[in-house]
Amino acid sequence: MKWRCEWCGKPHEENDPPCDNCGHGTFEEAVTQVNHEVVEGGPRWVCLDCGRQHQKNSPPCNRCGGSNFERRTGPPEDDPLDEIKTGWLDVLEAKYVLGYVTVALVIGIVLLGLVAGVPLPGFQSETPAGPPPIPDAPGQADTVNSLSLAEVEDIYVEVYNVRRSSISGGTVTRNATADDAATYYNRGRVAAHYENADPPTRDGVSRFALSCDRPATVHYEVAYDRTPMSVEQFGNETAFATALVDSYFERGQPVRQTDDRTIGVDVHVGPDGRVFVTHVLC
Q1: What pTM does this model have?
Q2: Cα within 13 Å of Cα(15), Cβ side
Q3: How far apart are CA 240 and CA 87, in angstroms?
Q4: Domains of the chain in sequence order
Q5: H helices within the chain, ranges in order?
Q6: Which residues of the chain have pLDDT under 50?
Q7: Whole-angstrom distance, CA of residue 4 vs CA of residue 254
Q8: Distance between CA 33 and CA 22 in Å, rounded?
Q9: Peptide bond preceding 43: is omega within 30 degrees of 0, i.e. cis?
Q10: Whether the bond into 17 is cis, omega within 30 of 0
Q11: Which pLDDT value is given to residue 97?
Q12: Rg (CA), the chain
């Protein structure tokens, strides 16, 4: 004996409601064998949002995702959306489409920034304002063996100008801001040499309020501890400064000429007697 749903006519082997087609809770005996398929003109469920017809009351709608179904009987109705080949994309609400597009654009921009290194608005690392701090460095920055290193730096500029003029390089004038830039760079080199600190950078020099956009930073070392003479054997500041300038030109270094013709100098003596010299031309 066969059973069928009183509501939709779906056949079942046993009287064991609910119906697995429409969910109805009452079966009736089937007098004749019925087709397992939903017959033409039988009940169907129509989405009230887009008109899509379904065999079961099983939201959401396959076309628009709607959940408001209505049971209808009789021959299937023509679906105007099927005739014009309209799919679920055509019935999506505009606000959701706009949201999807916005999310896709954001993801694309972030990926572009990560892969291609394109700077993103609001994500750029800010460039520090003002000059960097002048670091502490081991050794002597003021005096060595009763010699004033500030005076050595003054005489260094005088001797350097004499040597520049002798090769038609013109003269330069000492500048306090350039002095600070030279001190930042020179002491940074000393700290990096003896304490493995981070070395100074040319960008750090450019952050000082210098009179030119591209200052020339010249630095070198003189290791007097490797020769018969030591720093302590210089009798006065003039002899010490002259030896430092001579050491620079004896290396075959070119004379760097600039339009503004200013110079900043720093002389620092390390713990082992090594002399670090930096001058910044602008």
Answers
A1: 0.55
A2: 7
A3: 89
A4: 143-281 (3.40.33.10)
A5: 80-83, 94-116, 149-166, 176-195, 202-206, 237-250
A6: 1, 33-39, 91
A7: 105
A8: 20
A9: no
A10: no
A11: 64
A12: 44
Q: What is the pLDDT of residue 174?
A: 94
**Cα distances (Å, whole numbers) of residue 178 to 63, 159, 172, 215:** 74, 18, 12, 9
- The one-letter amino acid code at 241 reads A
- Here the tokens at position 170 are 């013109």
* Alpha carbon distances (Å) from 263 to 18, 74, 199, 213, 252: 97, 99, 22, 14, 20
Q: Contact at 8 Å (CB) between 57 and 43?
A: no
pLDDT at 259: 63
Phi/psi region, residue 108 (left: phi>0; alpha: psi -120 to 50; beta: rest), is alpha
Partners of 38 in the β-ladder = none
* One-letter amino acid of 132: P
* Dist. CA 267–CA 151, nearest whole Å: 10
- What is the DSSP code (8-state) at residue 270? -
Helix, strand, or coil (residue 221): strand
Closest CA to 223 of 192, 279, 269, 155: 269
Contacts of 54 (CB under 8 A, 6+ apart): 44, 45, 46, 47, 61, 62, 69
**218 phi and psi angles, rounded to 5 deg:** -110, 130
Residue from 36, 58, 37 nearest 46 by CA: 58
Sheet with 2-5, edge to edge strand ranges: 11-12, 2-5, 27-30
